[in-house]
Structure formats: C-alpha cells, structure tokens
Amino acid sequence: MSVIAIIPAAGIGQRMGAEVPKQYLTLLGKSILEQSVLALLADTRVQQVFIAVQPDDPYFSAQTNLSNHPQVVRVPGGASRAQSVLHGLAAAQALHGPDTLALVHDAARPGLSKKLLTALLDQAQQVPERGVVAAVPAWDTLKQTNKHGQVQTLDRSLVWHAFTPQIFPLQALLDAMMKAERAGVNVTDEASAMEFMGVSPILLEAEQQLRKITCPDDLIMVEALLKAQPQ
Ligand code: C5P
C-alpha cells in the first residue's frame, strides 16, 4: 500500500507559554515542525505530507522552508486536533487511491528516528487492518479517579502512553473518525476512533525522544536526548 502523512500543526501551544506556537520554536537549528516533517520524509515510502495549519497562521511561510516543498500540501487546521486530522484526511482522499495508508504524526514530536519509522511502516504494511501506534509502556504507577473522588491503581504492566506516528488505512480512518465524532467519542488520537470501530491496533514500542513537546521542560529534555544520539 502507498503511504501519505498527515501532520496536525494547527495548535496554539498555550501550555508552552512561548511567543510563537510551539511547532515554530527552533530545535537543533530548524523549527520543530520542519524536524517532524523531514523525519517522515526520511522514508521514501512517504509520498506526500498534508500539514494542517491555521488559515491565518503567518509562521508557516515565514519561519519554515516547507511552503514550496514538492511533497508538502498545506490544508486548513480545525478547532480541535481531530478536526485538523480530518481536514488532512479529506484532502488526501481526494488525491490518493483507496489502497493508501495514512500516517498521522503530531507536529510537536520532532524526535522520530528513521529506525522507528521504518519499523512502524513495515508493521503497518504487514497488517494494515489492525494498524500500528508508536507507544511507550507506562513508567510511573498510574491512578484512576472517578467523580466521587475514589482512587484505584491501574496495573501499570498493562498501560501504555500512546504517541504518534499512528498508521491506518486512509479510508477506514476517515470513516472511523467521522463516526466516532458523531457518536460523541473524545477522539484524542486516531487509535481511539479505530478502537471505537472494534479495531485493536498494534502498539510498537517507541523511544522517549519521541515524547510530545508540550511544556518548556519537554523541549529541554527532547533536545538533550536528540543531542545525545550518535551521529
Ligand atoms: O495541544 P497538543 O500538544 O495536544 O496538540 C497535538 C498536536 O495537534 C500538535 O501538533 C498541534 O499543533 C495539533 N493541533 C491541531 N489543531 C488543533 C489543536 C492541536 O492541529 N486545533
């Protein structure tokens, strides 16, 4: 199956508290968004990258070299991450055939290694009907609370943090996200929409350097982890 990528990059990065949205902050000499896009294009199976950006965003053209990239298509971002992904999926569907895999990757995860991307794409091409999600096993003890304030400890050997990339067949993902949203499911990642349709995705262990940059501490940590990589 051929592969296209969707990058939701339309967030405002409120928790980062920076002057520009976090995807435009500089990391190792490039914007975080460019690092994330170039990491995806390192595998030649990724044909095109659809980047969802707020329609009035001035930074995409001014702060990155992506506007004229032959494999990049800019699409309008939405009010939520799920809406931004849906816009990207709809644009991709208009240009690509039914036998296409959609890889969704957060703009704010610049630490995707070529090794992990290759492993994710290999896995998705072997079992496209299940799809694949980059994830890391929980490292802390996790508690669940309810509205009555009761606390329960989860078995952390069974709990994972879902990262991106997440890869599913384009048409199935588009259908699942529309149905899940209509049913009121809180679609915080692509896998949650596929799970709503009864699909059980494969979790492939990711590296810590792939964690999402949300707060200033994340930027310091991801930059340090990437600098420590053998060149
Ligand atoms: O806010 P958070 O870090 O969870 O956002 C995850 C990703 O979704 C980021 O890359 C962000 O730019 C993107 N996003 C989006 N459209 C929104 C909100 C977030 O594309 N409306």
Blueprint (SSEs and pairs):
Elements lengths: L1 E7 L17 E2 L2 E2 H10 L4 E8 L5 H5 L8 E5 L4 H15 L4 E5 L9 H13 L5 E6 L5 E3 L5 E3 L6 E10 H13 L7 H7 L5 E4 L10 H12 L4
Parallel strand pairs: 1-4, 1-6, 4-5, 7-11
Antiparallel strand pairs: 2-3, 6-10, 7-10, 8-9
The protein binds cytidine-5'-monophosphate.
The site of cytidine-5'-monophosphate has 17 residues, from helix 3.
Catalytic activity: 2-C-methyl-D-erythritol 4-phosphate + CTP + H(+) = 4-CDP-2-C-methyl-D-erythritol + diphosphate
Enzyme class: transferase
Organism: Aliidiomarina taiwanensis
CATH class: Alpha Beta
How many runs of DSSP E, i.e. beta strands? Answer: 11
CATH topology: Spore Coat Polysaccharide Biosynthesis Protein SpsA, Chain A
Order of helices and strands, N to C?
Answer: EEEHEHEHEHEEEEHHEH
- Note the total helix count: 7
Q: List ligands, each type once.
A: cytidine-5'-monophosphate
The residue fraction in helices comes out at 25-40%
Count up the domains. Answer: 1
Rg calc: 17 Å
Shape: globular
Strand content: 15-25%
Residue runs with pLDDT of under 50 for 5 or more positions: none
- Major β-sheet, in short? 7 strands, mixed
What is the arithmetic mean of pLDDT?
96
Major beta sheet, strand line-up: 5-4-1-6-10-7-11
Keywords: Isoprene biosynthesis, Nucleotidyltransferase, Transferase
Family: Belongs to the IspD/TarI cytidylyltransferase family. IspD subfamily.
Function: Catalyzes the formation of 4-diphosphocytidyl-2-C-methyl-D-erythritol from CTP and 2-C-methyl-D-erythritol 4-phosphate (MEP).
InterPro entries: IspD, IspD/TarI, IspD/TarI_cytidylyltransf_bact, Nucleotide-diphossugar_trans
